[in-house]
């Protein structure tokens, strides 16, 4: 019974948070998309192509953010054997993988008209591709064992080990010459924010929308996994009983 | 309780060791991760004649000469310069004062023959009106700093700042 105490409490919190995160998501998407597509100005050099940024950059942030959440959840699951933490890490992986994929595809579509190439093997692009493979590897490993516990353990170790790639992605544009330009939004760096205020509205609105989407799908995913675990244990009890 | 602590230390030490190992590996292979060399890099390293490599920097103001399909321009990192010739289609963002990454080889006469030219832009984004008013009010220096960041590499641009 003690094992179910935490999931029960989690479900209560999740059900209270879900309407709010959904509301924030819808609102931020409405504001973000309308500014991104219509109300924000074109760029002085890239003109209308700059609108790709409002999908590309928040997706990249999501790729790094979700992976960090997944690594923390994996660490908590590994050390404290917290059952909800393992579910959180498992449910994060597909979300992060999709946003990393969106980042890579939108970046290619942006690179062709602006840089003159779909893809180059520079440090930033390559490390981002490695991130996608880490997500895919995590998902494959987490599902590869008949014994869920063993799969969880192996995948958690992979998530933690793979986290070393996150600072490499972030600082690749500062440490090495890359075709990709340095960060435009870098509050702690010397460059600060190199984007005009009128373009920051859609950028941050889309970033909030993506984060709210993550919270919503994560809560729904964990809720689904808890329900699935209950079904499994009921079936087991039926067979044994 | 002690088991949890032991696992905590194990994971913590593992992450530290992994981080240290990664840092060492990255430092060791550092130069191979450079996507391009700046003109200043080329003064410091030997490049065999005919060896293909990528050269990056800014297109020097007033250096672009077009002759049919062939274009000649000078790549600079504000310290050293290298003349480049290229035959083919340039990316839309190619212009004087903009970042560029070219791939090709250096001839014995010091002329770099590029097989491909990619545009490298900086991290500044703004509407055209803001760019115009910045230029009018003389605050465009910030934009130039961004351009310097585009060629920021092994100290090329830093040397000019002091």
H/E element sequence of chain B: HHEEEEEEHHH
Level-1 CATH class name of chain A: Mainly Alpha
What Rg of chain A, in angstroms, do the CA atoms define? 20 Å
Helix content of chain B: 25-40%
How many domain regions of chain A?
1
CATH architecture of chain A: Up-down Bundle
Biggest interface, chains and residue tallies: A-B, 41 and 47 residues
Question: How would you name the CATH homologous superfamily of the largest domain in chain B?
Answer: Nucleic acid-binding proteins
CATH architecture of the largest domain in chain B: Beta Barrel
Termini distance of chain A?
Answer: 18 Å
Number of E-type strands of chain A: 2
Structural class of chain A: mainly alpha
Major β-sheet strand ordering of chain A:
1-2
Principal-axes geometry of chain B comes out as flat
Beta-strand percent range of chain B: 25-35%
Estimate what percentage of residues of chain A fall within beta strands: under 5%
């Amino acid at each position: 019974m003690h094992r179910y105490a935490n999931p029960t409490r989690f479900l209560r919190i999740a059900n209270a948070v879900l309407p709010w995160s959904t509301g924030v998501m819808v609102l931020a998407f409405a504001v973000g998309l309308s500014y991104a597509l219509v109300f924000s100005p074109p760029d002085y050099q890239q003109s209308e192509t700059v609108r790709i940024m409002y999908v590309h950059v928040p997706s990249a942030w999501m790729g790094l953010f979700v992976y960090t959440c997944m690594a923390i959840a994996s660490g908590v699951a590994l050390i404290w054997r917290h059952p909800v933490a393992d579910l959180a890490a498992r449910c994060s992986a597909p979300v992060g993988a999709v946003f990393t994929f969106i980042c890579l595809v939108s970046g290619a579509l942006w690179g062709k008209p602006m840089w003159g190439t779909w893809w180059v093997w520079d440090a930033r692009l390559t490390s981002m591709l490695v991130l996608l493979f880490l997500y895919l590897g995590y998902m494959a490993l987490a599902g590869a064992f008949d014994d869920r516990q063993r799969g969880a353990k192996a995948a958690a170790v992979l998530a933690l080990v793979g986290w070393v790639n996150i600072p490499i992605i972030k600082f690749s544009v500062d440490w090495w010459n890359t075709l990709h330009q340095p960060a435009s939004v870098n509050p702690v760096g010397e460059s600060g924010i190199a984007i005009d205020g009128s373009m920051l509205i859609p950028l941050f609105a889309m970033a909030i929308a993506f984060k709210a989407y993550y919270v919503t799908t994560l809560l729904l995913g964990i809720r689904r996994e808890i329900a699935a675990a209950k079904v499994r244990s009921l079936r087991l009890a039926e067979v044994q009983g | 309780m002690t088991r949890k602590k032991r696992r905590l230390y194990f994971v913590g030490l593992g992450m530290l060791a992994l981080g240290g190992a990664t840092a060492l590996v990255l430092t060791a292979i550092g130069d191979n991760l450079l996507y391009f060399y700046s003109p200043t890099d080329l003064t410091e390293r030997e490049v065999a004649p005919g060896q293909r490599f990528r050269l990056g920097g800014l297109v020097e103001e007033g250096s672009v000469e077009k002759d049919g399909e062939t274009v000649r321009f000078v790549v600079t990192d504000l310290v050293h310069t290298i003349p480049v010739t290229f035959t083919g289609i340039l990316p839309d963002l190619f212009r004087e004062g903009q970042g560029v990454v070219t791939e090709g080889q250096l001839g014995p006469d010091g002329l770099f023959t590029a097989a491909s030219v990619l545009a490298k832009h900086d991290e500044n984004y703004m509407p055209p009106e803001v760019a115009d008013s910045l230029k009018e009010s003389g605050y465009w220096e910030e934009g130039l700093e961004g351009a310097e960041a585009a060629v920021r590499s092994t100290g090329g641009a830093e040397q000019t700042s002091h």
